[in-house]
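Intended use. Records like the one below are meant for learning the mapping from a protein sequence to its folded structure. Do not use them to infer anything beyond what is encoded.
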Amino acid sequence: MSSKTLAAGAAAPDVERQHRQVRKVPTKQLLGVAGILGFLLTWELIPRLGIIDANYLPPASEVIAALVVDFGLTAFWVAVGETMKAWFLGLLMAVAAAVLLGFIIGSSNFLRRATNSTIEFLRPIPSVALIPLAVLLFGVKIESSLLLIVYAAFWQILIQVLYGVADVDMVANNTAKTYGLGRMARIRYVVFPTALPYLMTGVRLAGAVALVLAITAELVIGSPGLGREIALAQSGGAISGMYALVLATGLIGVLINMLMRFIEKKTLAWHSSVRSEVVV
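Structure written out for the chain above:
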């Protein structure tokens, strides 16, 4: 058998694999589009058929039309900006605090045992339970939203960082000690690369939680943002406008999730968890 025949035989599986990738990616996208269209069609038919009164659930076409109108309003984009500012600042503070405390606590067996019960006690407390405290401290200013966002997002990241630090290979850590690496050098070259995938997962989860709490704080407390606009639309009887704003928050959530996944893939391009996502 000639070398050209062998090369052609070896290349055949690669070509077939590429064809499978090309076929699968559009299929996945088409299924996603079909799911969205099916949801919108169902939504459109429910009030049209009288299953639910249109005064309580307007047809999807009316809500989408109201959302398109909102896109042209300056007040809408100001509200989006207020919500995203609270989301970004709250998430940034939560990441900074959780990473710092996570590495400090996770690097010490004593601190891990000493703080375990406290963490397990505080973590399940719902952030909305802090709304009265936030209002007493800060009123309806953005600081009230930040208090709730930071509290909710902090635990998502801290727990992941603690798991990541605990997952460090002791052989690698002891080898680093043998070669004379100090504590900070070991954290940089051994602990941090191990904990980074856990950290990115925590940040991605915290991003969604932070948006939920930002909208909730604005809705309940009355802080500036989309949540307050939703409450105003509901109290004013603008039901289609209210659902349009709710739909806008969903679109923002999708965009945030896409952004977080993009950052995660770029940051962890070297990690097997990301490389394994390639369709074979």
